[in-house]
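Example record

The entry below shows one chain as it appears in the dataset: sequence first, then structure tokens.
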Amino acid sequence: MPSGQRRTGGRVPKNTERSGLACSRATIIKEENVRATRQQPNARILAAVVVTVLAAINATAVVQQTHRLEAGPATIAFGYYWSEAEPVLRIASGDIIDVDTMLTSSPSRLEGMGLPPEQVQQSLRDIYEQVSREERGPGGHILTGPVYVEGASPGDVLQVDVLEIDLPIAYGYNGCSGFIRDNCPEERADRSRLFWLDREAMTTEFAPGIVIPLRPFFGSMGVAPPPEAGRWSSVPPWIHAGNIDNKELVAGTTLYIPVWVEGALFQVGDGHAAQGDGEVDQTGIETSLRGRLRLTVRRDMSLEWPVAETPTHWITMGSDEDLTEATRIAINQTIAFLGDRFDLPRGEAYRLISLAVDLRITQLVDQKVGVHAMIPKAIFGER
């Protein structure tokens, strides 16, 4: 942990769609007053006043904007997160980005796997043709961004609500290397394989009689790391999140990331159509994605490591070159989270983890291995 950057586990309140609730409440009140007007002619003045006041309140609310962000040579960071990267988009806190991400493979490699040339995305060709090798690296992921979020400062938390994820192309690929690469096919040509995606059924056939359900997610969502980290490879995850490869972060979930630089500088990429915990052969089903993400600055929270939320679980996480140390980080972050949110003493939080929390290996193949803890909301009466 860089000096002066240490944080404690933070309180993460439930999400609230305030603008939607306000509109629904205004509609209900208006309908009730219309009924009252029909029954009591003298109530028309009161109904008019109520509707006018509600309209004035809603008019002063912050307008949420959606920004379209297509992936192309001028809107991506090829292989890195960096505090000095120039933002490609500036948005207000609470705005939504409608964003494209590119799969992590070159057009020539995809064609070598048997993909017809006309099915290679033109934006992917443009990136490989126009982004020089000197501009790439040290990692290999194509990340869309950075996005500068107004008001985000070091010490804040960036809340990333994953609203929607779509599959814009009908294929993905898996490349074999990873944790035990001796298990990969001997012939190099057989180590990468295309998978055709049934986007109606949301499945892909692995082999006759073996069908894999598709649960698309962004393997990499992160902010710029602390400035002293320099140009950070897109491969290893860390306190800025990045390439965490957590398959739980599908549409309808939220990721909370500590902010380390002004504007946060959010980036997203490394789309997966499916993946198992561990990602043992280096890749899931890698594919391009299109998603809608809401980015909100949170000043009422303080985190040392990223935390995620699904409808059923809280997720704490840790990463390190050593699996034992990554596990220790994940456990200690879970203890900090339980102490902050539920006022559990350290010893009792540790006991609860052993009794009711599942530790999982997020991935084993990205220089730093990842471990995450699944904290079930149900044990706290949360539904």
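Notes for this example: Residues 1-60 have pLDDT under 50 and may be disordered. The helical segments are 18-39, 44-59, 107-112, 122-130, 323-342, 346-356.
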